[in-house]
Automatic annotation (TrEMBL):
<keyword id="KW-0460">Magnesium</keyword>
<dbReference type="InterPro" id="IPR024932">
    <property type="entry name" value="ApbE"/>
</dbReference>
<dbReference type="Pfam" id="PF02424">
    <property type="entry name" value="ApbE"/>
</dbReference>
<keyword id="KW-0479">Metal-binding</keyword>
<keyword id="KW-0285">Flavoprotein</keyword>
<protein>
    <recommendedName>
        <fullName>FAD:protein FMN transferase</fullName>
        <ecNumber>2.7.1.180</ecNumber>
    </recommendedName>
</protein>
<dbReference type="GO" id="GO:0046872">
    <property type="term" value="F:metal ion binding"/>
</dbReference>
<keyword id="KW-0274">FAD</keyword>
<dbReference type="InterPro" id="IPR003374">
    <property type="entry name" value="ApbE-like_sf"/>
</dbReference>
<dbReference type="GO" id="GO:0016740">
    <property type="term" value="F:transferase activity"/>
</dbReference>
<keyword id="KW-0808">Transferase</keyword>
Length: 299
């Protein structure tokens, strides 16, 4: 058993659990501050975050952090490679269905200008020397890709700072690097969507990430949830409860899960595999479908 330290804390609307393996266990103390910094940059519920200032700027240039520039570049790349299935400009639609208030109980609400519209104009976003200019009417939501990127950046920071291994779980999105606690592959449980808190399958990875998206959480009113179909502009109506994707990074895994809520399972699997992901899809009737390449991760 390798020396390790674990910490847990609330952040980004959920629970983070961070594991550091090796001799530099003091690194664990920096994890919460690192994630808090990113949350304060990216949260749409913080009026002075980079994302909120960009959304309020109505076409004016805004100076933002390097991390925010990276996030926005990933948003644009992900939108292109998924042919628009992943769309970070859906914020006006999320507010329309009732997702304007933080789920943490803080009472903080998202504010966007009257000019905000969907779909936004990603192709004309300008990024240069830390200054970002969103076209008027375009607003961004960091959402799942922000959570995945936060896990990527924290795990990278821990490894570069001397950790021999690091595991970052961000509300169920998990990024793994280096040595595990037992010296073997990292073991990660896939939650049963019908029995929260229990796992129905375990997978193992050495380096990489797994992300899960669910239509059974973050629900609003009648049949509304936060997974918006960019074909209709409404909550996805496909019969999917959850989709779990293994990919090289947490950010990419998060993006690829959205494909499962756009297409029927077989078509979704084909595209996710084409984009170098492996997927497990659970339908609302309990039926489970796995991509052919998922089997190599089953513990």
């Amino acid at each position: 058993m390798n020396k390790h330290a674990v910490t847990k804390f609330a952040a980004m609307g959920g629970l983070f659990e961070v594991t550091v393996v090796g001799q530099k266990l003091e690194l664990i103390s920096s994890a919460q501050d690192y994630i808090s910094t990113l949350e304060n940059l990216w949260s749409r519920f913080e009026s002075d975050s980079d994302i909120s200032r960009l959304n309020a700027a109505e076409g004016k240039p805004v100076l933002v952090s390097d991390q925010t520039c990276l996030l926005i570049k990933l948003m644009i790349e992900s939108h292109v490679k998924t042919d628009g299935i992943y769309d970070p400009t859906i914020l006006p639609l999320l507010i329309e269905i009732g997702y304007d208030e933080s789920k943490t109980g803080s009472g903080k609400k998202t504010s966007i200008p009257a000019s905000a519209t969907w779909p936004g104009n990603l192709k004309d976003i300008e990024i240069e020397h830390g200054i970002v200019k969103l076209p008027k009417g375009t607003t961004l939501d960091s959402g799942g890709i922000g959570k995945g990127l936060a896990a990527d950046l924290l795990s990278q920071f821990l490894m570069e700072s001397g950790a021999e291994g690091a595991l970052v779980s961000a509300s169920g999105d998990v990024v793994a690097h280096g040595e595990s606690i037992d010296g073997n592959s990292w073991k990660i449980g896939i939650e049963d969507p019908f029995n929260p808190g229990t796992e129905f399958e375990k997978i193992q990875i050495n380096e990489g990430a797994v992300a899960t998206s669910s239509s059974m959480k973050n629900t609003f009113g009648d049949h509304n949830h936060h997974l918006i179909s960019t074909a209709t502009g409404k909550s996805s109506s496909v019969n999917i409860a959850t989709a779990s994707v293994v990919a090289k990074t947490g950010a990419n895994a998060e993006v690829l899960t959205k494909i499962a809520f756009y297409y029927e399972p077989q078509q979704a699997i084909e595209l996710i595999e084409k984009l170098n992901g492996s997927v497990l899809i659970v339908e609302k009737n309990g039926e489970i479908t796995r991509s052919q390449n998922w089997s190599k991760f089953v513990a």
